[in-house]
Amino acid sequence: MLETSTLCIRVSDTQICPFCYSRQIVKNGHTKTRKQQFFCKKCNHRFLDFYSYKGCHLQINRSIVQLVKEGLGIRSIARVLNISTTTLLKRIILLAQKAERPILVYGKKYELDELRFYIQHKKNLQWLVYALDHQTRKVISFYIGKRTNKTLNIVVKTLLYSKAERICTDKLPSYRSLIPKNIHCTKQYGTNHIERKNLDIRTSLRRFQRRTICFSKSLRITTAILKIYFWM
């Protein structure tokens, strides 16, 4: 309730810090536009009495995460939230840095697959290689690059470090030289969950859809979008 109340109620009315909800706040001068500043003695945060720009509201990050998962593009999210695209891109990168990948557990069964998409134009073909926990169906690791052994090996090494019990893949020949035979599985229906995940990604994120003009312009932003989609 306190988090949403900052939209219409000033800090001077509530006398509560919007970060730690402490009442140990004092006035701390004014900005160039004559807005009252406050300082919290408990968490040492400095904040304004009210923010006129919507990009400064506390719940804006939560809205960005929700809209990214719903598959809206950068400009669509900026229009809905009424913020600039530059602010949105910076927020996406900061949110991606805070995303925490699931903890690896020894002796698990994983599914591994690749997903093809484009960046900027169809001449720049890229592959999303990622691994899925067979039991929890959570994405453990992913990497974007060309469809080479070097790209595949980055994700495979992560699974080998966790002492995977079994790694299920399709019959791509490159996997035979990267995954030990005793844990490698290429049987039919072994990658059902990750194939379904491929469909979910293509349905949710426009930049991964087939026959689309919604190409990503930046590899960095695409990686950040995937971190938010997978791990937040």
UniProtKB/TrEMBL annotation:
Role, per record: Absolutely required for transposition of IS1.
Protein family (similarity comment): Belongs to the transposase 27 family.
Keyword entries, A-Z: DNA recombination, Transposition
GO MF annotations in UniProt: DNA binding; transposase activity
GO biological process: DNA transposition
Tagged with keyword Lipid biosynthesis: no
Protein name: IS1 family transposase
